[in-house]
Amino acid sequence: MFLEHLFHAPLWQQLDRGDLSEKAALAELSVICSDAAFLSGCEQLLTHFACHLDPIPETHHLLQDLALHYPVYLLTNFQSEPYKRLFAVSPVLSLSRGAVVSADENCMKPEPLIYDLLLDRFALVPEQTLFIDDMPDNISAAQAKGIHAIHFTNPHLLRDLLQSYNLKGI
């Protein structure tokens, strides 16, 4: 039920885009289902979502290596409060020089505006920027802005692909 009514539902996209608050999402879910255990589980998931994300150690090491030599920025489709909680429990995120969080901007990947916000906010030159993402549509949208992009499928392949860019420390 969590997958059907929360994670794979349009409601999740509305949360990530900042169009819906956690409280409003729970109200919508209560219309769909009156099961108290399900609603309590949804509330717990929304409140503690960041704690349910398992870190990938190889990806963290790669981010650490990159941040030693290059400015790293985050562009994420994420809800505001859960992102703050994730940032607090995931020290590797503090290696970034800044972030654009979709819910804070009321737009999300792959919408063109969010890439413009990233480039403008951090004075990034598209042709000198490398974007890494796990979603092909997001990769295409970044490339449409002139940004180099790598489709992330696993950390080992990512390291190999980054080496093809002749980056220091990789």
CATH architecture label of the largest domain: 3-Layer(aba) Sandwich
Helix residue percentage = 40-55%
For the termini, the CA-CA separation is: 42 Å
> Would you identify the CATH H-level superfamily of the largest domain?
HAD superfamily/HAD-like
Record the strand order, biggest sheet.
1-2
Give the total of domains. Answer: 2
Helix and strand content put the structural class at: mainly alpha
Largest sheet: 2 strands, parallel
**Poorly predicted spans:** none
Number of helices: 10
Query: What is the fold named in CATH at topology level of the largest domain?
Result: Rossmann fold
- The CATH class label of the largest domain is Alpha Beta
Portion of residues in beta strands equals 5-15%
Overall morphology:
globular
Listing every helix as H and every strand as E from the N terminus to the C terminus, the arrangement reads HHHHHEHEHHEHEH
What Rg do the Cα atoms give? 17 Å
Description:
The protein has helices at 2-7, 10-17, 22-32, 36-48, 57-69, 80-89, 102-105, 112-121, 136-144, 155-163, and strands at 73-76, 98-101, 130-133, 148-151. The chain is mainly alpha-helical. The chain has 2 domains: 2-52, no CATH class; 57-163, Rossmann fold (3-Layer(aba) Sandwich). The strands form 2 sheets. Strands 1-2 form a two-stranded parallel ribbon. A two-stranded parallel sheet has the order 3-4. Helix 6 (80-89) links the parallel strand 1 and strand 2. Helix 3 (22-32) runs antiparallel to helix 4 (36-48). The termini are far apart. The model has no long low-confidence stretch (mean pLDDT 93).
